[in-house]
Amino acid sequence: MINKRTIYFSLFIALLIGISYIMNWGVAIANFTEKGTLPTFDDPGQRILIVVPHPDDETLGMAGIIQRAVALKRPIKVVIVTSGESYKKAATAFCGKTNPTPQDFYRLGLARQQESITAMRVLGLPRKDLVFLGFADGSTRFLWSQYWDNDRPRVSGGTRVAYAPYDTVYKPGIPYTGQNLVDELTEIIKNFKPTDIYYPLADDIHPDHWAVSNFVRYTITAMNINVREHMFLVHHPQWPVPWMAEENRPMLPPVDMKDSNTEWQSFDLTPKEVDLKRTAIKQYRTQTEVIKPFLMAFVRKTELFATKPVISIPVVDSKPDLQTRTLPHTLLKVYTGGILNGKIYRSAVLTRLGAFYYDNKLYIGLESARPISKKVIYHIEMRLFYKDQNDIKRIDLGVVDEKLYQYKRAENSLTDVIAAKPIIHGNKIWVEVKIPQVNNLRYIFMGADSIYKNRLIDKLPWNMYVISK
């Protein structure tokens, strides 16, 4: 008689063969065979706020947390930022049309809201504790980078409107801007007063996930509040594997994130909590119809959470050689493979970030997998948090055709910070930046990305930095 696990493994190998043209075999197998234990916690918090990008993320990442909080009678709120309406594959299956209309996308958004309501009911969470914000699916990264001020909203790619069209959301009709999203999160946090906030991990490769992560961490830092932060991961290359329910396997971190400034913890689920999580996932019918194997991969005996320590930027007495083979003062390393491995322009693949402070200037270095190219645009973006809680500035830099530019993307943009043109050597770029009022600076929230042929190719996850004194 054939062992059930042998059948599962055979199916897994068949799946790998079927999609090998986009898979990195080494990473997929390494994740599947990963062993080990993690630090654990069993108390979800006294007052729990969950913030997720789409309907279903709350169940994939935190069904166990939600059930435990309900059982312990702990106050809990689940906030869903978008209604997931712009997912064309799901919209096509939902309406039966090859090219869904804006009205079809709108209807999908309502259906996905109802799916979350039903799934939360399975987990014991009442409708009053579920909050939809109604921001545009697929647009949050644009709100973060370009559409910040309230006089310039972003038009949804699905519903084709620039405001929340649903009367089921927290503030119907609110324009799609970054500032409005921060304002809503701030208001919810002030009113609810959470002790613990669960939100996406910035290393998630889905733009809505890393953008929502940025918005939540930005809001927490701007409010200067003391809460426990728990970050969860959904989308990452060749993770989790296998794509099926494995209630006897723990959820373990991707093997390629061991050097990513991430500290992991595990939350153990009871068999009953695992069973209810499976049942709750099945309520998202618009999603299970198109990506059920992936969704079921989150049915495990544990849930996985992370924290991101603040990274220190060293103050140095002497300036290092910026044309060495290795990147001086590397602070962040990222994996260079992934789903698009071998199919994208390798000069746009970002591998490391370095930084140091010397002679009243901040030096920031990027390293790519291949020599720096004039065909690629490299961005470095920063949010500066000063000791005055209301004083937040932003710096947005771009290296275009080996020239350094600074952009004014919001009213609080600083546009006179460049100290010199970029230093480019091989696969490295260094820029000098004059940071104003360094003595009053609390944190630098910083990330980077690359653009090739008008397409976002890669990014370095946003992290919080502090200049060492």
Give a brief outline of the structure:
This protein is an alpha/beta fold and 469 residues long. It has helices at residues 4-18, 25-32, 57-71, 88-95, 102-123, 140-145, 178-192, 207-223, 271-281, 285-296; strands at residues 48-52, 76-82, 130-135, 196-200, 228-232, 263-268, 302-307, 311-313, 330-333, 350-358, 361-368, 376-386, 392-400, 403-406, 423-425, 428-433, 441-452, 455-467.
Jot down its keywords:
28% helix; 6-stranded mixed sheet; 469 residues; alpha/beta
Number of extended strands:
18
How helical, in percent, are the residues? 25-40%
Structural class: alpha/beta
Q: Going across the biggest sheet, name each strand in turn.
A: 8-18-17-12-13-14
SSE layout:
Layout: H1 4-18, H2 25-32, E1 48-52, H3 57-71, E2 76-82, H4 88-95, H5 102-123, E3 130-135, H6 140-145, H7 178-192, E4 196-200, H8 207-223, E5 228-232, E6 263-268, H9 271-281, H10 285-296, E7 302-307, E8 311-313, E9 330-333, E10 350-358, E11 361-368, E12 376-386, E13 392-400, E14 403-406, E15 423-425, E16 428-433, E17 441-452, E18 455-467
Parallel strand pairs: 1-2, 1-4, 2-3, 4-5, 8-18
Antiparallel strand pairs: 6-7, 9-10, 10-11, 11-16, 12-13, 12-17, 13-14, 15-16, 17-18
What would you say this structure looks like, in words?
The chain is of the alpha/beta class and 469 residues long. The protein contains ten helices and 18 strands.
